[in-house]
Amino acid sequence: MSTLDTPAPAVATGKPAGRTAPRRPGTRRGEMSRGGALGSHGILITASLVALFPVAWLVFLSLGPDKDDYLRPGGIWGKMTLDNYVFVLQNTNFFDWLKSSLIVSLGTTVIGVLVAATTGYAVSRMRFPGYKKFMWVLLVTQMFPVAVLMVPMYQILSDLQLIDTYFGLILVYCSTAVPYCAWLMKGYFDTIPFEIDEAGRVDGLSPFGTFLRLILPLAKPGLAVAAFYSFITAFGEVAFATTFMLDDERYTLAVGLQSFVSEHDAQRHLMAATAVLIAIPVSAFFYLVQKNLVAGLTAGGTKG
Amino acid sequence: MTVAIDRATGKRSGDRPPRPGPGRLKRAYQKHWYAFAMIVPVVVVLGVLVLYPLAYGFYLTLTDANSLNSARTIGVNEIEATYKFIGLDNYADILWGETSYDRFWSHFIWTIVWTAACVGLHYTIGLGLALLLNQKLRGRTFYRLILILPWAVPTFVTVFGWRFMLADSGIINSGLESLGLPTPLWLEDTFWQRFAAIMVNTWCGVPFMMVSLLGGLQSIDGTLYEAAEMDGATAWQRFRHVTLPGLRSVSSTVVLLGVIWTFNQFAVIFLLFGNTAPDAQILVTWAYYLGFGQQPRDFAQSAAYGMLLLAVLIVFTSFYRRWLNRNEQQLAI
Lengths: 304, 333
Fold this sequence. Notes:
The complex is a heterodimer of chains A (about 300) and B (about 325). Chain A has helices spanning about 15-20, 35-60, 85-90, 95-125, 130-140, 145-160, 165-190, 195-200, 205-220, 220-235, 240-245, 255-260, 270-300.
């Protein structure tokens, strides 16, 4: 969203205003005194350092070859090496974990978006009996704590022999992804003018035809945001993945990363390297789409 | 989870549900059949994946199921479930049974403190940064890109970064020591565990608030500020009477979201402490510990905690909505 980079307060254009209420130089609307600017920069730089440091520290530690280097960070400067990365890529299940993560997250995303699209449209445009109750159910479903569904899901999936399968995990994630995609897409459909629907209906399209031929093509950015959120949520999920995936070839990245630290041994240098390997593509992707994401937020839908 | 502003309501006042009368169901069906057809996929999915497990989970809370008496398969032997129905005993035991303070109420209080502290910090810091970023300032875009980094990197990655930093002789304690300050045992001492958890979660959650509030700030009409200035309003008065009211609808949404997420926050505490810190567990992670982190696994109690958590959230959301409605705020969830 481009408006994010333009200052909101419009600069006063009317000269008369300036004359009737003369101001000190340098304090026109939208501008600041020198001290104010310095203070702002100071705070923002501090905040940026705080935001940056833990991630930078992780990158730095990942370059140290020894598992206890995190206790003696000074020593890393002398012996920086990429060996940890080489080791992680060659000798661990990193690629299996990546594959699991991708299968599960993409599966959830596709199912979530496909199943929820028509519903998002219906609740955006139509008022049917039971509308309010339905919306309430959608909302409540999204705030389920993990603890509510975990036990029964575990039992049900065990009965169905779906524990430790990708499909089982996708099903679990869909329980939150579907209602949440429906909400998000409703928010986006709401921004598409009703006149378009009406024009379509006048021209003889059925409600489904309107949706498929007119609205859906217009809603592509909204679908993309919903897909992105589902993906990120599924990718970063910890509780269900930790409990339901037992075989370490089917771990998702979130589980695999934990497996470096056990009660007996902590391979922190490898863990740091893996963490960086995960963080780079994900954050790159995040930065690529973040403008759309902000547009999605301000269009009325917010992430869950 | 998501919250959308309900623009459609009120715009199409002609689409009210039909009045009660004979053949109402049939007429409703004829008029709305395509709406129903469109929501069918989600209804089916919710029914199978949410309502059925929820009902089953509720049934489990009325039993004494644990991992020793549930149906399970060991090798080739299939063992039948032998747990029995015990009514509401689980709830009674959790809420006012022996040692219920240590098992439930202490975690409950800590969860409330945790939620209030985290959301308060998220909102204040997020608003402060959003206000700074909303000025004409060199390098704003650059600052913004760096400041959303904690949101861009998955939580399960950054929490481990914090764990390295908070370790006994990690960088934070080394830094504090070189400054001559006390070096708390961040990951062992209960108070400091809680402190660390709030700190890490604040770090993770501020960017979302900041970005949302920045979007809200930019949608405030600039002429309002001009008018206020013309009337001689000070900076504080402009903030108090223009900025804050202008942010009301965004704020009430993000605060609700923040409360729900923080209340349900699993990853931060689970990954920071694992099962080592019983006193720093909020209710969600504690319920997980009961059901999956110990042997034998206590499924019934864990599910009962889950139900109680959900009840707390639903009650809170209902009151919050009612409170918003009373203040005539234009926000619909």
